[in-house]
Amino acid sequence: MNRRRTVKKRVFFSVALAVLSAAGCTKLLEQDDFYQMRIPQEKLGRIETFIPAEMNTPQAEAPVRAEPNALAGEIQLTLEECRALAIENNLELKAQLLSPTIRNEALKSTEAELFEAAFYSNVKYVKTDHPNTTDIALAGSQAEMSEIDLGVRMPLRTGGAVTFNLADDRTKTNFTGKTYNPSYDPSFGLSVSQPLLRGAGKRVNMHRVRVAEYDRQIAGAETKLKIINVVSAADRAYWDLYAARRVLEVRKQQYELAEAQLDRARRFVDAGQNPQVDIIRAEAGLAGQLATIIAAENDLRVKQRNLKRILNRPDLSMETPTVVDPTTDPDPVYFEFDKKKLLAAGIENRMDLLKLEFELAKNVSTIDAYRNSTLPALDLKYDYGFYGLGKTRNEAYDVLRDKNFEDHVVTLGLTVPLGNQQAMSNLRAAIYTRRQLLATREDRQALIEQEVLNALDRLEASWQQILANRQSAILDGRLYQAEQRQFELGMRTSTDVLEAQTNYANSQSAEYQALAAYQKALVDLAEATGTLLGAAKVEWEPARPNIGIGR
Hints:
By secondary structure, this protein is of the alpha+beta class. The chain has helices at residues 2-23, 41-45, 52-55, 79-89, 91-96, 98-115, 202-205, 207-270, 277-311, 339-349, 351-373, 393-402, 421-488, 494-528, and strands at 74-77, 118-133, 138-155, 161-173, 183-195, 323-326, 377-387, 406-415. It has a domain at 77-105 and 209-362 and 432-528: Up-down Bundle (Outer membrane efflux proteins (OEP)). 57% of the residues lie in helices and 16% in strands. A hairpin with a 4-residue loop joins strand 2 and strand 3. The longest helix is centred in the last third of the chain and has 68 residues, at 421-488. It is elongated, with a radius of gyration of 41 Å. The model is unreliable at 18-24 and 62-71 (pLDDT under 50).
């Protein structure tokens, strides 16, 4: 009967050990598994050369004559669609959205490290054969011992710990004086420890968890700031593209007008009303307009590539020739802003300032922890145990259940550091860090105020530029028409007409650029106050990709 129970207990312990071993096994996804990267030393120690001829397409031929480029495939994009794509696909934002998730796991890890209960077990087998003297001769003292120790340790948030322990010992010896041979000695123990000065209290022991929680919230503030930056960058890139697209349209329109002027000049020369040189003047003006188109096309491609990078749409990569047509038009409306409200909004909403507030909160917790570490260590410990003994395991556990043999031990330990220099230095450094953070916060508040006021000035200047450039475009348009009529009357040359036409095109381009600058100034003002332009709110959640490990 006893042998059967012993076998059952051995089976139980074996199964428990297998379960505990399996609990730590985790299968990672293939892309998260370990890999090793080896790069030849030559790749790091040698700088390669760039030879244009080797990169040239064999069938490529240099163009004989410059012509305006025809537009490739075209898509239309509203500002709202631009924002949505930026939030959904931007690579920087995808990376940043993982930060709160990582910090959240770090928070869980810290809390588990400090306060997660742990089951422990020890199995020990000892066989000894020591020499011993008797009245007759030298003999061997042999003993065979097996120990099984099971327990649970539960850390407390007050800094102490509670430990439950169950031990089962079996001893067999050749010593004839023992009543029970083999003997079974089970015991149960309860231990409670609690620091009373250093390391005492929830606030001190929750310090690392509190810091991890602040780090998690800092990651959230950084992510929100990144979203604002990404959306604001998308808005600016959108309006830059809008201005570049409209400027290119103006330049192409002026090219067509220059062609028409060349035709008129030829007719007048053929009719004998103008000298032959007037055709050369018109051709030179046409070539100059073509140069402005080439520059405008290049600027459009640069602005377009910047927007494509921010959007990161799979079918709209940077190397694709697809043209993006921004269909949302500027809506310039004059605003008389309340500076005090804007400054208050900046202080309230700016995530970089909120991040500093979290750093200050971490520092306050650190100061408390270091101040506590300067105290002496005064620890109270209580140990309670009861024991059993028998010639069989069942008899031993019967004695254990009766609790006739009990121990009570109370220990009070005191440790006073001599000098305590390390703890005092840590405390002083934490207080100095607080002074530094407070100064940084004041500087950041002043910087926010400066950014808000600068954005307000840019907005006002952009509005004035819209009015000035619009008036200039109207007057330059009238002047161009007047110069054209004077040319038809033989009172002006093609140079005069083309110069007036260039001024008119420059005024139109400046007006579009001023409209885009006004929209970007509004974006700057919103970003300076820690907000996003527009009525639609943006809500986000941390990214939690599937990595093959349970939560």
